[in-house]
Amino acid sequence: TKRSKPEYIYGVNPVLAALSAKRRFNTTLYLNISEKGERKSSDKMNQIARMASSQKMKVKFLTKMGLQKFTNGRPTQNVVMKCDKMQYEDIRSINDIPFTSEEGKFILFLD
User: Fold this and answer.
1) SS3 assignment, position 91
2) Whole-prediction pTM value?
3) Cα-flanking dihedrals φ and ψ of residue 55, to 5°?
4) Contact 33, 63 (CB under 8 A)
5) Over the stretch 60-85, which tens digit does the pLDDT of each residue have?
């Protein structure tokens, strides 16, 4: 099958949210080279590094300019996550939604 173009999630809070959800695959975490070594990183950056490690994610270190190549020059807050595109369900009708029972149906559609 043809692989889709990867997505790049950048910024501390968006990357933390993506790591917490555990719904992204084929991920690589790119961190600014300044985050490597003995330098004291922020608590959130340490949390990102721990979560990436526990999820067996590849971690690579790049310069600030290297990170911004993924984001068309937008600020990255020293972190970019490369991953597959999120898979969404294609629902054309209420009848397309599988339910296991009639009891307690609740549907929330967000755009």
Assistant:
1) coil
2) 0.76
3) -95, 10
4) yes
5) 999 999 999 999 999 999 999 999 98
